[in-house]
Amino acid sequence: MMSEKLLTFKACRKLGIHPNTFRKWDKHGKLMVVRTVGGRRRIPESEVERLMGFIKPDVSKNAIIYVRVSSYDQKQKGDLERQKQSLLDYAKSKGYNIVTVLEDVASGLNENRKIIKQNI
Which residues have a catalytic role annotated? Predict the structure, then answer.
């Protein structure tokens, strides 16, 4: 019989929690850990999967991207697409979860953005 893989504090990253939270959960019996001979904590992979069902995703990392050009001519030239790709790349590099991308062709003089009001 093959033994289950035991994870170190890398499990915290997978769960999206701080190592101190991991320690507190262990102290209060909220998770199952295995102690090594040296007293180090290891968490079974199945326990990480169980906990992932209870942890809500970090919505503070959710983002909505809004891209706008002033004219259809700019859209046809690809300005809107380049702007969108640039923002998507930036968001990805910062670890954001893109919820939606709003695209608009409208003058910068008009602050009334129906597309934003409809989607937020």
Answer: 70
